[in-house]
Amino acid sequence: MRYFVLLVFLGLFFGVSSCRTDFDFAESTGELRFSRDTVYLDTVFTDIGSSTYTLKVYNKTDSNISIPTIGFAKGAASKYRMTMDGMTENATKSFSNVELLAKDSMYIFIETTVNVADANPTDFLYTDQILFGTGTNQQKVELVTLIQDAYFIFPNRTEGVYEEIDFGFDADGNTTQIKGRNLQENHPDNGNEYVWKNNKPYVVYGYAGVPDGKTLTVNPGARIHFHKDSGIIVQNGATLNIAGQSSITENLENEVIFEGDRLENGFSETPGQWGAIFLRSGSKEHSINHLTLKNATVGIYVQENLGTPLKIENTQIYNSSVVGILAVYAKVDGFNLVINSLTRGIGALEIRAGGTYNFTHCTFNNQSSSSTQFAVIIANYILDSNQNQVPRDLTAANFTNCIIYGSNSRQLSLRKNESQSFNYKLTNTLLKFNNSDPIFSANPLYNFEDATLYQNCLIARNNFDFKPDFLKASENKLQIGAESVARGAADFGFSSGTTDVLGLTRSNPSDMGAYNWTLFEE
């Protein structure tokens, strides 16, 4: 009897199993659902591959389905490519008999590499569709990409080896090189590369070199995009002239903008996407006006240019992963300069090995939570390869009508070698610094009662007193509001006849920092 019951049970089990439909697939009848009906692949430069974008496809029915075909409306000629999760088929244009279980979903990954000649000539859009199924059951998802034409500057390559230019010196004093090439006056594609125009963007791969005796001029409204590990090197005897102008609209039509070459929204504020603007020792007569520089590793590195100062005005430097400006035994005159540091690194402004510096109506801010990072660092020495101090005179480091602020309690670091001069002064400047620790209170460099070093300064010793009332520092918005302690606290003798970084006339009394105060909208 026991064996009879067992046989009946096994018979029922196999009978039921033979009727299962878990893995039966019926042809799709148009019931697919999608995470979006249009995939926008943001903006790409001509012939430069895009990022990967994701479309999620859902089968929300109770039945397993098979999608006869998934492909582009333009077929094999489409400039788009796609892959699917879990698919081993080596295809990028179309797929056949794609199975999707009941209540399941799958991902489609989409990319493109397209030339501006393929776009609609009126709006520079390149479009296509992903088609799911055939006939009356066919469904579709739109694809849209905006294409920008550009001037491309990249090093030449011979038998797989890229051209290089002088970059610096190693520990033994030998010249080092980095991937890049010198600009040309009569480039076959770009024309005169010593004048960067505003009719279309520039995309730089490697370092663009400005050789001895040459001047690179960047015209108002120019847009410059740097690939990873790229930048500009201005050599001994050469000059950089960034000639931006004040803009009338929010489009910043006359501003010069330096940033990375990733145009997707997710990369708009990502630090460290490219290298630096490197003004090498002996380069001269640099002028930077109305420049917005974003997302570099080192924004501007200026090295031993004591013959003539770097004159930098109406300039904003954001999101440098190491430091906004690094000056080594240099001479810099800054006016209406804004540097905001958001990440771990060094900070906003670092001065090494002395030099001569004058900053007026500037805003330096450090939002990092690191206690080793500062808004401003000043040292009259540099460390050699053995970590020994090599001192040089700090002739002057004057900060007038400035704001030096940040998240932590100390935003100024003074590093003095006693064998060389160390001349600095803050005048009518808002400084965040808590010197209650005996290490600082006993240090004469941080004696805020010494009017020869700190004249008419406001010292914020915590997060509650003497607040600058920034609009939103974490988003690089350092405009000051009506409640700012910096409002009306500047020395108008240095403000008279000038405008702020946005081109607004300074009134009397004037405000500390690069911005006039404004009434923020609720």
Structure annotation, total helices: 2
Quaternary state of the chains: single chain
Unreliable segments of 5+ consecutive residues: 1-21
Q: How would you describe the shape?
A: globular
Amino-to-carboxy terminus distance: 85 Å
- The average pLDDT is 90
Structural class: mainly beta
Please report which band the strand proportion falls in: under 5%, 5-15%, 15-25%, 25-35%, 35-45% or over 45%: 35-45%
- Structural domains: how many: 2
Beta-strand segment tally:
43
Please provide a written account of the structure:
The protein has 2 helices and 43 strands. The chain has 522 residues and is mainly beta. The protein has 2 domains: 26-148, Immunoglobulins (Immunoglobulin-like); 151-494. It has a 27-stranded mixed sheet that branches. The longest helix has 16 residues, at 2-17. The chain is globular, with a radius of gyration of 30 Å. Mean pLDDT is 90; it is low at 1-21.
Can I get a quick summary?
The protein is mainly beta and 522 residues long. The protein has two domains: 26-148, Sandwich (Immunoglobulin-like), CATH 2.60.40.10; 151-494. It is built from two helices and 43 strands.
What are the SSEs and their pairings?
Elements: H1 2-17, E1 26-27, E2 33-34, E3 38-45, E4 53-59, E5 65-72, E6 80-84, E7 94-100, E8 104-112, E9 125-132, E10 139-148, E11 151-153, E12 157-158, E13 161-162, E14 164-169, E15 175-182, E16 195-196, E17 202-204, E18 207-210, E19 215-218, E20 223-226, E21 231-234, E22 239-243, E23 256-260, E24 274-279, E25 287-289, E26 291-294, E27 296-303, E28 310-318, E29 323-341, E30 347-360, E31 363-366, E32 374-379, E33 381-383, E34 389-391, E35 394-400, E36 403-406, E37 412-415, E38 425-427, E39 430-432, H2 438-441, E40 454-455, E41 458-460, E42 470-472, E43 477-480
Parallel strand pairs: 1-5, 3-10, 11-17, 15-18, 16-19, 17-20, 18-21, 19-22, 20-23, 21-24, 22-25, 23-26, 24-27, 25-28, 26-28, 27-29, 28-29, 29-30, 29-31, 30-32, 30-35, 31-36, 32-37, 35-38, 36-39, 38-40, 39-41
Antiparallel strand pairs: 2-4, 4-8, 5-7, 5-9, 6-8, 9-10, 12-13, 14-15, 33-34, 42-43
